[in-house]
Specification:
The chain is 29% helix and 21% strand. The protein has 13 helices and 18 strands. The longest helix is centred in the first third of the chain and has 14 residues. The protein is elongated, with a radius of gyration of 23 Å. The two termini are 16 Å apart. It binds pyridoxal-5'-phosphate (PLP). Pyridoxal-5'-phosphate (PLP) binds next to helix 9.
């Protein structure tokens, strides 16, 4: 029995969640967003199981190169684009699509003499005010892009939704309309929806959608559960009970003694902590799952350990598996208890955690290893 915490990645759930994307946006093509190591799930492994996606999106060139080196042949869009001539040449060599969100990136395309052409997605700031050129600047930007002679096909237009996670926020519809107004004979396909957008806002189901978090089975909304959208959690984070204690009334548990036992009570110590990516600021009361029963975290999270109130589970045994999130305990619930979002919890699972991939597409294709043997 290993006491190393494990992130179990359920590739059948991943493929199921991609089918949920298709359910919501049946007429859109799907760029599966697998930046930040596929939100902590393993970028190359996730790409391997999402063969049904139409392409992938990553934040940075380095991520795209890693995918190409792993043999991924599908379209890859670099959401941040490139900043230098050397990066542009590498992106072109690796046949990556580029976001152009800044005039400096247009100048780069004008200045560098590429041996071929690149596909460009012109990013428009329709109201989020982070990346993108303003709608007023689009006609001039399009003219310059077309003149640069560097383009493979007409520039596609994209925008990113700032408040789509808040159901009914009027900004979302305004952003969709603002991008759609810019489409014309010189522009190619459009891309608007992220997970929250494509689920809740039909106007964001553009030619291409860019789901991230929903592929991993977490709800993109600030309230509600992923199960409401028929999504299944992909990552289950597990550790084990490595000590069982009986604390006395008045005992203060952990660093700082922030939790004081209100009565004599069983306390479980679990071999996971912030050094594994479990959030240090998770307060007492944050749920964990032991043998299917929810029990509250008590005291401070330490680097390698957390402590649980086991009064609700008198039969707990040394070595029992503890689920920190995933199957049976939605990550968004832990995120809300902790004052953060599922994205952050998933992304920051640390390399110290052992990753176990179950049901990878490649394994199934090879035959009877993998799933069957692991069962
Ligand atoms: C990360 C990202 C997405 C995916 O967003 P989710 O909320 O995870 O679906 C889509 N588009 C852009 C530009 C992004 O940066």
């Amino acid at each position: 029995m290993s006491v190393v915490p494990r992130a179990i990645i359920d590739h059948a759930a991943l493929r199921h969640n991609l089918r949920r994307v298709r359910h919501y946006a049946p007429h859109s093509r799907v760029l599966a967003v697998i930046k930040a190591n596929a939100y902590g799930h393993g970028m190359v492994e996730v790409a391997g199981s999402l063969g049904e996606a139409d392409g992938f999106a990553v934040a940075r060139l380095e991520e795209a190169v890693k995918l190409r080196e792993a043999g991924v042949r599908k379209p890859i869009l670099i959401l941040g684009g490139v900043q230098t001539g050397a990066e542009l040449a590498l992106a072109h060599h690796q046949e990556c699509d580029l976001v152009v969100h800044h005039l400096a990136q247009i100048e780069l395309l004008e200045r560098e003499r590429l041996a071929g052409a690149v596909r460009v997605w012109l990013k428009v700031d329709t109201g989020m005010h982070r990346l993108g050129i303003l709608p007023d600047e689009v006609p001039a930007a399009l003219a310059r892009l077309l003149d640069s002679g560097a383009l493979a096909g007409p520039p596609r237009l994209m925008t990113h939704l700032g408040n789509a996670d808040v159901l009914g926020d009027p900004l979302t519809e305004r952003q969709c309309a603002a991008l759609r107004r810019l489409a014309g004979p010189e522009t190619g396909e459009l891309s608007i929806g992220n997970s929250a957008g494509l689920i809740a806002c039909p106007a964001s189901r553009s030619d291409w959608v860019r789901p991230g978090i929903m592929l991993y089975g977490a709800s993109p909304f600030s309230a509600g559960a992923a199960a409401d959208q028929g999504l299944r959690p992909v990552m289950t984070l597990r550790a084990r009970l490595i000590a069982l204690r009986r604390c006395r009334r008045g005992d203060a548990v952990g660093y700082g003694g922030t939790y004081v036992c209100p009565e004599d009570m069983p306390v479980g110590v679990v071999g996971i902590g912030y050094g594994d990516g479990y959030p240090r600021h998770a307060p007492s009361g944050t749920p964990a799952l032991v043998g299917g029963v929810r029990v509250p975290l008590i005291g401070r999270v330490s680097m390698d350990l957390i402590t649980l109130d086991l009064r609700g589970l008198p039969g707990a045994r040394l070595g029992d598996a503890v689920t920190l999130w995933g199957e049976g305990l939605p990550v968004e619930e832990v995120a809300r208890a902790t004052g953060t979002i599922a994205y952050e919890l998933l992304c920051r699972v640390s390399p110290r955690v052992a990753v176990e991939h179950l049901g990878r597409t490649g394994e199934r294709a090879r035959g009877n290893d993998g799933e069957a043997k692991g069962a």
